[in-house]
Amino acid sequence: MISVAQPLMRTAKKRKLVRNNPETPVILAGVFLCALPIDKLGRLGSYRAMTDPNPKQEFVHGIRDQLPLQLGVIPFGMVFGVLGMASGLTEWQTILMSSIIFGGASQVVFAQLWMAGAAPVIVGSSVTVLNLRHVLYSVTIAKYLRNLSLGWRIILGYLLTDEAFAVSIKRFEQNPVPRHAHYHLLGSGLTLWTFWQISTAAGVWLGTTLPAHLNLDFAIPLTFIAIVAPILRKMPQISAAAASGLVAVFGQSLPWNIWIIAAALAGIVTGAIVERGQDPS
Q1: Does residue 260 contact residue 25 with C-beta atoms inside 8 Å?
Q2: Once rounded to an integer, what is the mean pLDDT over residues 102-129?
Q3: With contact defined as beta carbons under 8 Å apart, do 258 and 250 qualify?
Q4: Phi and psi of 34, rounded to 5°?
Q5: Contact call for residues 4 and 170 (beta carbons, < 8 A)
Q6: What are phi and psi of 15, to 5 degrees?
Q7: Is the Cβ–Cβ distance between 163 and 69 less than 8 Å?
Q8: Contacts (Cβ under 8 Å, ≥6 apart) of 225
Q9: Which of 56-60, 123-127, 146-150, 239-243 has the lowest average pLDDT?
Q10: Burial class, 69, CB count within 10 angstroms (exposed 0-12 / middle 13-18 / buried 19+)
Q11: I need a surface site. Which of 31, 65, 110, 120 has the fewest CB within 10 A?
Q12: What is the per-residue pLDDT across 223-278, written as a single tens digit (0 to 9) for each?
């Protein structure tokens, strides 16, 4: 089981971002992100066999590490395709949103608010709040990319999503850091991007023919449960999940979807306090 929650928490505390970067309780990723038990899939063993993987090997391993998560990403993308069409967006508007925003949870919220007739300011601010977790991701991984060209950093920044961060951060944290580790993130991110675009298009064009009893919308929470659940083994992460979940459930009546911010802050702050209390220093 490989956790990437601790580097996020450490970065948040060091950079004093805990209070300024609310995370969405829809995914809880910024609070206690984790990777799947990918060591059982052979990732670590294959890396041990290569003392210094070349760019192609890193790229291929990034793809392999990302592939298991696509079992949840595919139905998630199809759900968004259907939801985008139902919200009044055109086929190409829905598909291009997956390329421009490239953020599953925020795209779903965008479509839901658009369908409800919310003001553009509310729609834009809600999407922005949901995507603020990427500030923590980028700050955490920036030190590993600082020697790359601006072009490389722009590309990798665009591809830096929840799932890509989850499977690539441990590669960057190896000691010593592999010279071509950024190719792992490139492979992971491109794999997710490709499946997300295809599944969105499939949802747009096949949405009306999909039987309702498939309940594909259930794939949305399942996708993030697959990322998050394995980390819930230590008290800081469990406390963060409990606090965030309780506020999210009981704060649904709050105006302007402010429960998103409240629940996220509750989870982040609770997790940080509990972790600090367990620190013997």
Answers
A1: yes
A2: 83
A3: no
A4: -150, 165
A5: yes
A6: -90, 5
A7: yes
A8: none
A9: 123-127
A10: buried
A11: 120
A12: 667 667 766 878 888 898 899 889 989 988 887 667 777 887 888 889 889 988 87
3: β partners: 34
pLDDT of residue 35: 35
d(CA 140, CA 199): 29
pLDDT > 90 fraction of the chain, expressed in percent and rounded: 22
Helix (H, G, I), strand (E, B) or coil at 34: strand
What pTM does this model have? 0.67
AA letter at 175:
N
Task: Give the position of tokens 């190719």.
Answer: 183
- The number of CA neighbours under 13 Å toward the Cβ of 203 is 28
pLDDT of 101 above 80: yes
Say if residue 33's pLDDT is above 60.
Answer: no
| CB-count burial class (<10 Å; 0-12, 13-18, 19+) for 230 | middle
Q: How far is CA 195 from CA 129, 130, 133, in A?
A: 25, 21, 22
State which amino acid sits at residue 115: M
If one counts every other C-beta atom within 10 angstroms of the C-beta of residue 76, the result is 29
In 3D space, the residue among 73, 112, 97, 120 whose CA is nearest the CA of residue 204 turns out to be 97
- Residue length of the chain: 281
Residue 113: pLDDT above 80?
yes
Q: Where are the alpha helices (DSSP H) in 35-132?
A: 43-48, 55-66, 70-86, 91-100, 104-115, 120-131
Gap between the Cα atoms of 87 and 84, Å rounded: 5
Distance CA 72, CA 244 (A): 23
